[in-house]
Specification:
By secondary structure, the protein is mainly beta. It has a single domain, classed as Porin (Beta Barrel). The protein is 12% helix and 58% strand. The chain has two helices and nine strands. It has an eight-stranded antiparallel beta barrel. It is elongated. It starts with a helix and ends with a strand.
């Protein structure tokens, strides 16, 4: 199933879930959000595996990226509501591959690769939100799940050249096209303003790397993505 079909099914499922409730509740609210992302790899551990009978270790840490998108909130009964969003996310991380001597001997002159990797996703979170009301301040909490669809992945020329030396292939062929994520967060809005601030965490459940890789080499990996976002929102 290609990316367009996956995204379409998610949209249809979300609308089917919210429309019956929205018909008897307050009108939906629409928002635009944008902000910073701190993302990385390895929240549940590093990667380890084998290439052609030899071993390799992989780890990583994150750098600042950005996110922007739109969403709709469908009020339900009481303080609860359902949120559906489409969020563009740029994840930036440095994947550090350290080769063991049984994989590449010291005479090869290449002990590892530090690949600054950029992965672009469109994330479709579907969350349940609970609102409080304190004077003119409206704090809220939300949680749910989302589907992240990879748009692109790339690395710098030198890192890609080193990956080619070990037969790994292009970086965009080494990571999964989709990721299932847990999404949780909190935010605050103001009843006398259309602006709000939100913090959220998006934690991937799918391994970053595909296996086997295109050249047939296997990588048994526990590495998953994570993203922590600070977003500013505007209510239409």
């Amino acid at each position: 199933m290609n990316r367009t079909k996956i995204a379409s099914l998610l949209v249809i499922g979300a609308l089917a879930a919210v429309l019956p409730s929205a018909a008897t509740a307050d009108p939906p609210e629409f928002r635009a959000r944008a902000g910073l992302v701190m993302s990385g790899f390895g929240i549940f551990g590093n990667s380890s595996g084998s290439f052609g009978g030899s071993s390799i270790d992989a780890g990583g840490f994150g750098e600042a990226g950005f996110a922007a998108g739109v969403g709709a909130r469908f009020p339900l009964n009481g303080r609860f509501s359902l949120q559906f969003e489409a969020l563009y996310e740029r994840s930036v991380g440095v994947m550090s591959f350290t080769f063991r001597p049984d994989f590449l001997p010291p005479s090869f002159g290449l002990s590892g690769v530090a690949a600054r990797t950029t992965i672009d996703y469109i994330e479709f979170p579907l969350t349940v939100r609970y609102d409080l009301q304190i004077d003119q301040v409206r704090p809220y909490f939300f949680g749910g799940a989302g589907l992240a669809v990879r748009l692109d992945a790339g690395t710098d020329v030198n890192a890609q050249r080193r990956l080619d030396l070990i037969g790994a292939g292009p970086i965009d062929e080494l990571v999964h096209d989709t990721d299932i994520r847990i999404v949780v967060g909190t935010g605050v809005e103001f009843t006398n303003s259309r602006w709000g601030v939100e913090m959220r965490a998006s934690i991937g459940l799918t391994g970053v790397f595909v296996s086997p890789w295109p050249n047939g080499q296997t990588l048994e990996s526990s590495t998953k993505t994570r993203a922590f976002m600070l977003l500013v929102g505007y209510r239409f």
